[in-house]
Amino acid sequence: MATGAGGPESDVPLVALSGACVHFGAVRALDGVSLTISPGECVGLIGHNGAGKSTAVNVINGGLTPTSGSVQYTLADGTVGTGAAFARACGIRSVFQELSLCPNLTVMENLRVPHRDLTGFGWRKTAAGRISRALDEIFPDHRIEPGMTVGDLTLAERQMVEIAAGFAEGATPARLVILDEPTSSLDAAIARQLLQHVRRFCANGGAVIFISHMLGEVFEVATRIDVMKDGKIIASKPASDFTPQSLINAMGHVAKEKAEAGSAVESGQRIGGEVLRTTEGLTARKGEIVGLAGLAGHGQAEALARFFMSRSGGLRQVKEPEVAFVAGDRGRDGVMPLWSILRNLTLTHLPSLVRHGLVVSAAERKLGADWKERIGIRTDNLENLILSLSGGNQQKVLFARALASTAPIVVMDDPMRGVDVGTKQEAYEMIRWEAGRGRTFLWYSTETDEVCQCDRVFVFRNGRISAELTGSDINEENILAASFEMQGDGA
User: Distance between CA 60 and CA 83 in Å, rounded?
Assistant: First the structure.
């Protein structure tokens, strides 16, 4: 689709950072970062939430001017310069973890926002052609039309549109595409299509910065891996020189090595009687961790939403909640963007914090501080706005909000999107510990490794349950078989 200047063998970097620093008051978000990105490279940028990855890519794409240090761009004709205008002329595109599409606009109308040449008579036809060709090349059989309103698309489809827009042809061809957690809402089959396209794009002379907490994907596409911690690059070498364990060691552990002895109770000891049954046939028992799997967009999220709405909303359910919810699409269903981190975290727990009609501030702060420590939310002040956090840390707040409630059932719609590998392991231990105390979990995830943490798994296909798996039958092979087995049979 696009080729970098000089082809994949070129040694001239598209972007070169030298000693780049970004300070927000006393906070050093970026602390002396130096790196280069050359045509043909796919650089895996790895680090825990809050390590400085998002700040680094915003410096690279021209969205942030470094407090000190320099950023230099080399255009296709060899011209060298700095600043946001040079970043655009260099063909740098960004696909952010927090999707930036306008929900009230169509797919092709959204393309006009980054593609400034789409003006004048006939621009809609041009835009429709560009986005359709990109979708067809990256995601065959996507079934997304240019005239569809973005707000009517599923989360996975919106992510596919944003990715396609990042690679789409334009007046300035894409030469460096920054992908920030690009597969966080995609199922395994669609994610594989994207990874294949990344390899093709780089083989044709393009460059990619690939940010992901899914380390298997990073090893699959990256030619080089740069590890960030506390705003610095602490390791940079060819991907082949890392192993998964050495990469985790380089990142540094943020989670406890092991939960307290006896904290997780074996499933046979903790699972009790049935506590829910839905019209789709979804069932769960007290203390059970039930997974929902299958290709994205096949009814899992809708089933969770219907169940949640059926058990919430009443006055009694506000005071004594029956179910808590962890949103996967945090921008739409999760965070209150004008509220503080603390208020977002304690929202579902407020009834228990009220005395004489007023919230007891000391009790609220104590609850927030406890969960900040338990789940590792990276902030100096819980009174900061929720949007001051990275995407992964916002997701931690939503996860803490649900577990802080007294609800006996927790519904989780892909709750680990954008959360680092260390915190994921700690969260898994928390879920098992809470299940041991009798709490029930309904857990939809696009990650097979997460689904395999469950006691029982329902695989969805075309809005219906196509398989129920338990024990050793819960594995990737069986989940994929059940995901595809109804395809083409008229079901």
Answer: 10
DSSP states along 348-414: GGHHHHEETTEE-HHHHHHHHHHHHHHHT---S-TTSBGGGS-HHHHHHHHHHHHHHS--SEEEEES
73-95 confidence digits (pLDDT tens): 999 888 999 988 899 899 999 99
pLDDT of residue 212: 86
Long-range contacts of 386-389 (CB under 8 A, 24+ apart): 386/335, 386/336, 386/337, 386/339, 386/340, 386/341, 386/344, 387/335, 387/337, 388/341, 389/50, 389/341
Both structure tokens of 354: 């009220």
Tokens read off for 320:
């004594």
Tokens of 256: 């406890």
Query: What is the CB-side half-sphere exposure of residue 450 using CA atoms within 13 A?
Result: 30
Same domain, 167 and 281: no
Q: Which residues contact 142 (CB under 8 A, 6 or more apart)?
A: 135, 136, 157, 160
- Where is the domain boundary, 224, 251, 278? 251
> Which residue ranges of the chain lie beneath pLDDT 50?
1-9, 254-265, 486-491
Cβ atoms of 136 and 118 within 8 Å: the answer is no
Domain closes at, from 251, 280, 301:
251
Q: List the strands of the sheet with 68-74, edge to edge.
A: 27-37, 15-24, 68-74, 80-81
pTM of the predicted model, to two decimals?
Answer: 0.65
Statement to judge: residues 271 and 246 lie in one domain: no
Cβ within 8 Å of residue 61, ≥6 positions away? 87, 92, 93, 94, 178
d(C-alpha 89, C-alpha 170), whole Å: 11
Q: Compute φ and ψ for 18, nearest 5 degrees.
A: -135, 110
Distance CA 318, CA 398 (A): 17
Structural domain total, the chain: 2
Say which DSSP state 240 is in. G
Domain extent for 120: 15-251
Beta bridge pairs of residue 45: 211, 226
Q: Provide the 10 A C-beta neighbour count for residue 456.
A: 19
DSSP for 431-474 reads HHHHHHTT-EEEEE-S-HHHHTTSSEEEEEETTEEEEEEEGGG-
